[in-house]
Amino acid sequence: MSERIKQLRDDFDRELGSVTADLEATALRDRWIGRKSGLLTAEMKTLGKLSPDERREAGQRLNELKDHVESEIALLQDGFAGRRDAEQLVRERIDITLPGRRIDSGHLHPITLLRQKIEDIFVSMGYHIEDGPEIETDFYNFDALNIPSAHPARSPQDTFYLGDHLALRSQTSTVQIHAMQRRQPPLRVIAPGRVFRRDTPDATHNPMFFQVEGLLVDRGITLGDLKGTIEEFVRRMFGPETMIRFRPSYFPFVEPGAEIDYTCFKCGGSGCRVCKGSGWIEMGGSGMVHPNVLKTVGIDPEQYSGFAFGLGLDRLCALMYGIDDIRLLYENDVRFLEQFS
Q1: pLDDT (tens digit, 9 = 90+) per residue, 111-142?
Q2: 188 forms bridges with which residues in the sheet?
Q3: The model's pTM
Q4: Which fold has domain 110-340?
Q5: Residue ranges of domains in the chain
Q6: With contact defined as beta carbons under 8 Å apart, do 203 and 241 qualify?
Q7: What is the residue-wise DSSP string for 201-240?
Q8: DSSP summary character for residue 303
């Protein structure tokens, strides 16, 4: 039996020397010490045929051979695993001396930049920023703003109707109505946001655009307060030498109403391409809040008065940044937008 065990050891050592891969080592292990068909497992089963003394000696030597097989295969597999790890380290090696990859940072949209600047100016003047729904009822979009039923603005050719008595708001003046309903005078609010009108898109028009509306209501407010507020705004916005002028105009929700112009921020009023040679740029509409508007929201026009004003952000943004076509603001071309970081 001892000669048989010695021969088995020699056979194993010879086969072990020919193993070159992990899978081959696993197969060798199964061949020699597999539970069902391993060579040493088969030899263990023959021990019962031996005498007690022979069984004891043969069992000891077979166990020694089994330990030898297990340790040699484990050592071989550890070597294969070490080589795999080394090869993986080589494959995944990182050269820390190489320059890093630059990650492009995002950019605020030019309209957002302009809106934030305007908000900062009015907040520093004591105004609160208000927001409101973009879908409004006829009451908030027209009735409460003293816009009569026959007014052209109510026409489906001008307004995006969504159903009976519902439409996309056509001005952020609707936010002023909500603000006056929620809060009692004195109040100072600005309402920046998107508005919608049925305009044919071109270089200066878009069916969706941004506005900023302002409102102040208190006792004893006059047209002089409106003029002083707008003067302070344009001087902070465009420089201390900027001047304004009022041109009489009509808006249903103010009385009297006026268009506001300010001296061109490019040429200072001498005339250039931006102001089309006139020296003035139109800012937007303004006026004293109509008494009917105050009555609608439960404010006594005998006790309180106020002014309102509004300006469009898209055209102002185009003028400030030298953009010839406001449609570029909404095309999401990264090459265009990254200029305004």
Answers
A1: 999 999 999 999 999 999 999 999 999 999 99
A2: 216
A3: 0.69
A4: BirA Bifunctional Protein; domain 2 (3.30.930)
A5: 2-91, 110-340
A6: no
A7: PBTTB-SEEEEEEEEEEETT--HHHHHHHHHHHHHHHH-T
A8: T
